[in-house]
Design a protein that fits this description.
159 residues
Length: 159
């Protein structure tokens, strides 16, 4: 389903965006590959309005591209790739209509998350949207006993 595909793209885009920031590059485009059960691969790609190294922007673009998939045959594998890379330090033309302050806050947040992951490991900070998935790609089962009995985990806080 599209929701499952979005979970996969969120996970993959975290790695791609982290690598872009580490190498001080930006993506000017996104390419996805969709492999079906018959091992046939279909690729879609799109240019971005502004270069980015932000995972959320990569996922948004990937989902726009994935909407083109016809769903005649079930999906076996998905990939996301940053294309048309450019130097992150290169000057960029800023539009009057782009939320520049939001983009700067997002860059600062990404830098903080990269710092935390560098210190404590890649899995220490994860998007909440991925945590709703019952079975994680790494095969780890999620303990959802809290969702079944919300008072169980809160007793220590209530006194």
């Amino acid at each position: 389903s599209a929701a499952e595909a979005e979970h996969v793209f969120v996970e993959l885009s975290q790695d791609v965006a982290s690598k872009l920031r580490r190498e001080e590059l930006c993506a000017c485009g996104v390419q996805i590959s969709v492999k079906d059960e018959n091992l046939k691969v279909v690729q879609y790609q799109k240019k971005l309005h502004l270069p980015t190294k932000n995972a959320h922007e990569l996922v948004t673009c990937a989902m726009e591209l994935f909407a083109q998939y016809p769903w005649k045959i079930p999906v076996r594998a998905l990939t996301i790739r940053a294309i048309d890379l450019c130097d992150a330090q290169a000057p960029q033309q800023v539009s009057l209509f782009e939320p520049y302050e939001y983009m700067e806050k997002q860059r600062a947040l990404d830098a903080a998350i990269d710092s935390i992951r560098g210190r404590f490991g890649d899995d220490i900070v994860r998007p909440a949207s991925v945590m709703t998935n019952r079975k994680m790609p790494h095969g780890e089962e999620i303990d959802d006993s809290f969702s079944e009995n919300p008072d169980r985990g809160m007793r220590g806080l209530r006194g």
